[in-house]
Amino acid sequence: MPSVCFYFQVHQPMRLRHYTVFDNDDQYFDDGKNAAICRKVANKCYLPANRLLLKLIDKHQGRFKVAYSLTGILLEQLESFSPEVLSTFHALADTGCVEFLAETYYHSLSFLYSRQEFVEQVKKHVNAIEELFGQKPKVFRNTELIYNNELALLIEAMGCFDAIITEGADHILGMRSPNFVYRPQGCKHLKLLLKNYSLSDDIAFRFSNRHWVEWPLTAAKFEQWVSAVNGNGNMVNLFMDYETLGEHQWEDTGIFEFVKHLPEEVLKNPDNNFKTPSEVVASYEPMDVVDVPNMISWADTERDLSAWLGNPMQSNAIHELYRLEKKVKRINDEQVLSDWRKLQVSDHFYYMCTKYFADGDVHKYFNPYDSPYDSYINFMNVLDHLQKRCTGPSLGGELGGRLSGETSSPVGTGN
Amino acid sequence: MGLNEEGSGIRVFMLGWEFPPFISGGLGTACYGLTRAMDQLGVKVTFVLPKMVESSYVTHVKLLTPASPVQEGTRTVSEYELKNVNFKTIASPLQAYATPQSYEERIEESQRLKRERVEPGQTGQDMDKAADYGGDMYREIRRYATMAMDLARTEEFDVVHAHDWMTYPAGVAVAAMTGKPLVVHVHSTEFDRSGEHVNQVVYDIEREGMERAEKVVTVSHFTRSIVASRYGISPEKIEVVYNGVERNGHWTVGEANIRRDEKLVLFLGRITMQKGPEYFLHAAKKVLEVVDDVKFVMAGSGDLMYRSIELAAQLGIGQKVLFTGFLRGDDVRRIYQMADLYVMPSVSEPFGIAPLEALDNDVPVIISKQSGVSEVLKHALKVDFWDVNEMANKIVAVLRYPPLQMTLRNHGNFEVRKLRWKDAARRCIDVYEQLLVAV
To answer: Cα dist. B279→A86, A200, B368 in Å?
Structure first.
């Protein structure tokens, strides 16, 4: 009785503009570029995909279901740059076949650096989703599926969630299958849903790969793989970036055709159905306890944090950012708080990754920088300016002063 | 003879230039690195080079000249350690990077010295030869070609390989005489050296060499496209062979006693139009608007040196900019040890070996996007040479943020180890083999 459980991650970062040490204004973000990318992705992915899924839900009369996690930073951009996408999400919410998940509003790594900030961002996101779509998220997923036992305990302690999602990494599962519900180590009520990375990646990464032995992947073939789980699993968790549909896999790869036919193929087999994460959680009891003492994520082959925190620039940048938390919150300036939080978006640190830089492409998707070094320099210039807004321009600033070895002369007074 | 490596069997008649530390610039370094690697790969090289000597050792293997300002003890052992290389010098005042004008000045100087100092035991014939140098560089280049032909008559080789324009006529002549294929190696073009003020005679010599060659080797795609577009050479005939870097094999030591309060930003290279010294100074001016504890060092000499000193004064940063003149050997190593950052703001740089040496010495680098080396270096900061604002922005960031310096240094040092002269030599051998099969 495998249930197919789709969850799509929908996120676009707010990219910084080119900001040099000689700049001295509060305009940190590149609205032009962000708008252009947002509209481009809307046209290639969000709009056609939303319309297709609406049609499928309608066609299958409630038997086809999906879930989304929409970051707050994306919702803000859609509102400004592409409101028609937002209205199609409203239409999806109205079908009753779509579940919205909770995450950190700013798609941040705050869990690693500040529990207080983390909880504030989760609450902000829950409120935003409830306000927009009239449903209170009951399942939590952390940025990039970053997870460990402690996170699960914190989410359970927040008292408003039934389940948490993470990567079904081999090294946490051992011989166990990701196709069951589990219990996080130490939790009493919270359930754990694990991504079936093999079947998810067949769609997300391998779909258009002509060297793949299974190419071309058809809905009928995929249905057989899903049905093969029958007897050794309750569900198949297909978790992926929404941009897979039309952006990572372009329309001419046949990705929309594949999705279009998938529900009817899956539903042909009377043993199969579609469930949202909350329905899965309500339907099945935990098979076992999964112990994850160390941080995992869904990134790269390492499934660790090295894509965001793998080199000294990344850890320095994020460390300095969170060191500002107290000051930012003390001065009680909405704009400063919002700018500070937008700097927490994990993509900023991803752009600084040197791991695959020499080999080229993995981290290239809409990366506005030529190199990880440029991205660090830009980020630090912005952070330095934000720092001055927290402490007042006349004081110089702890960060700038400490790093430049100066105490008095404020930086960036040119132009 | 040629028992082990892949280059076995091939014999090269190489028209090159003096090795470091005798000359400044990358040309000698490249000739040394490439020849040494070929030697290790078992390629037999007859290495022909011009030497300004008072008497001509035309057929001698000996390299050191009495006139050399360098002391015996400081000579590298490089020439002695190359087993498969036979050095041949041709008495000639030609020098790498010379221009017709600098050549003239040098000849005048030499004539003056000669008049002042009568050498005992010098034969009249030698005097005649020396006098033959004359004041005209182009005539000297033709004379050099004739001498190279004389030399080639007694040598056995399969390929002729000529480095940069002054040796092209010699390469063409030797190839024509022997029927052996010619490879010309373009380390720089007249457009790099002179911008748009191209010397037509030099251009014509370059072009003829490229046209007459069976293969043209360029040190980057940057240069390849200049050779194709500006010289009309068919792109299929052009092969890119990147330069390498010689690992110095020592770790920076004794840094403690040169640590100062001030940071040091280094420009190291010839101070000529091609190298963009004025952009370095304008960027320095901007950096000093926001950072105080920094000094800028311009190490090198060249025709724009005095103008650069004046410019620094004009910009009001004279006390923050130091000019060291041309550095060699240990002084270069020392300045790298002191430097926090190396900047190469070249306007047009076919390759640029110096940034690799900087990285090898654990100094992070900023390089201009208009350089060949930016094609091979990922772990470097890159700017357009004219964008002094961005150059200053990046200099400030490196000075301010130790994690940036550290990451650049670690990755850069690792990356540079992969750029080896042996790979460059192998690529050249591939080129020879293509030609020899085709013949």
So the answer is: 49, 52, 11
In chain A, where the domains are located: 3-290, 307-404
- Three-state secondary-structure class, residue A264: helix
Instruction: Specify the 3-state DSSP secondary structure of B14.
Output: strand
Q: Do B397 and A381 touch (CB under 8 A)?
A: yes
Spatial distance between the Cα atoms of A274 and B397, rounded to a whole number of angstroms: 52
Is residue A264 annotated as part of the catalytic site, yes or no? no
Question: Which of A21, A315, A357 is the closest to B378 by Cβ?
Answer: A357
Nearest CA in chain B to A405: B400
Residue B277 φ then ψ, to 5°: -60, -35
What is d(CA B343, CA B380) in angstroms, rounded to the nearest whole number?
A: 10
pLDDT of residue B247: 72
- Chains A and B: how many Cβ contacts under 8 Å? 85
User: What's the predicted TM-score (pTM) here?
Assistant: 0.86
CATH number of the domain at A3-290, please?
A: 3.20.110.20
CB contact under 8 A, A358 and B378: yes
What chain B holds in terms of domains, given with CATH numbers, is 11-244+420-438 (3.40.50.2000), 255-416 (3.40.50.2000)
Give the tens place of pLDDT for each residue, A127-138. Answer: 999 999 999 999
- Minimal Cα–Cα distance from A78 to chain B, Å? 32
Tell me which residue has tokens 């999705």: A259
Query: Over the stretch A308-349, which tens digit does the pLDDT of each residue have?
Result: 998 999 999 999 999 999 999 999 999 999 999 999 999 999
Q: Residue A301, class by beta-carbon neighbours within 10 Å (0-12 exposed, 13-18 middle, 19+ buried)?
A: exposed
DSSP annotation of A9: E
Q: Which residues of A touch B392 (CB under 8 A)?
A: 20-22
